[in-house]
Amino acid sequence: MNGMSKIWVNEQIDPSGLLYACIACKSEQHAIACHDSFESNLTATQRQDGWVARLRTVESWDDVPASALKLSY
Fold it and tell me: 20 to 30 A Cα–Cα from 64, which one of 13, 34, 43, 72?
């Protein structure tokens, strides 16, 4: 990522592919904890219906969805 620090993006996506919840931060530790929470909060029914929790990285805050809660750490 060109020496830049990563921005971790946690997303919960509904069955139609729409972003339901999103939290972005620069701390890998916080991002993993958030992702674990997103995963564990999906019910069996939601999973069966196609809900997913996704963790990804981006290079710039410009690449984070506008609706995201953006944390400074």
Answer: 43
